[in-house]
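Q: What structure does this chain adopt?
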Amino acid sequence: METIGESRSAAELVERLEAHPAMKERIVRLLDLVENVTGEVKRADDAEQRAMGRDILHTWGQRLAETEGAATRKGGGVVHQAKKLRWHSTFGDIEVIEQIYRSKADGTLRRPFVAVAGVCQRGYSRALQRAITDFGADVPFGRVGGKLKEHYGIDIPLSAAASVTYRHARALARQDIVPQSAAKIAPLTLIAQSDGSMIPVVQPVAADAAGDKRKHRALVWKEARLSLVRRPEQVEPVCAVTLGDAQAAGEDLKRLALGSGLNRHTHVHGLGDGAPWIADQMERQFGAQACYLIDFYHLCDYLAAAANICDPVQPGTWLAAQKARFKAGQVSAVMDALAPYVEPESACGDQPVRDAWRYIANRPDQFDYPRAIAANLPIGSGEVESAHRSVIQKRLKLPGAWWKPANAQAMLNLRCLRANHLWHDFWLNAA
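A:
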């Protein structure tokens, strides 16, 4: 049985809908959809497509524009004019009649709807900017428009994909990309890895005053230094990439470690290839807390090349024996096995045995595999190698793509934000 309160609420709802014909029509259409009056809507995809909210957003905007305009006129002392205001949203273009006011006293321009609603002429809503940036972080800008058309049914200019994506990518600070510092007192082990990957960039070169500046750009390869840190029990690491020098990469490592709980009781298990800058930064950033290990599989590449010289009959057997010796901590035994076959320095051509011998001799404290194996820690840096492909190369190393260094760094930051699962946090406060 209907109560008096329910009857009054129903009457108020009808009265309010009568004041908004467009909304009333929308409600009727939604009811027709829910009840499937025509019997035509039987597929979920068809229902979703018909339930779009563009007209609701338009009605909201027009109502707000009228309300804010009335409040401004109430104060008096202004002249006004009406203009169309259009902005882009995930529901398509939204257009309202905006009231613009100018003070009679000092000529100050006032746009109350724009100030309250946070939109601008031909601007993009935050939801649409987020979608554009999401696609722009993954695919070439030329394909972003097609994806928006497919998923949202809207069109955007080609230039908008790049400008919107770059604007948010450039707004990223280093603290946005990595987790907040999580200081802990308990002993902790962190796995830290670094490596470099080359990406194509465009750099300007000196030009004559009368010369064509478009012809004075150099296409070069620049190293992107990727760092990642994780706890042993974690599946995914946190990462950061810099186009700066080794010191900048080391600072990334320290920042990532702090975000993962680095404290004075922490042991840092470092991994990387033979690049001197990686071992140097591990020591600089973590000191005695870090133990750096050469990637075992990178080492095996040197041993495999030497095996064909040291044992041409059974190179595989020889290689397996040296690998077992390294895992048992018998580095000197491997050096002894290489020594009789080291090529003279004056020898021409490749010197695979000398290369392997020199590689090991120059890194005497970086092969403590028994300790890592006993602690169930990795002895290979395949994780950072894989991250090169997923974080850097998948977007920045495309055929025919060349980047300005500033744009490349911004896009690297954006992709690290995604990889570190901080995407949602960033958009909570994005302008």
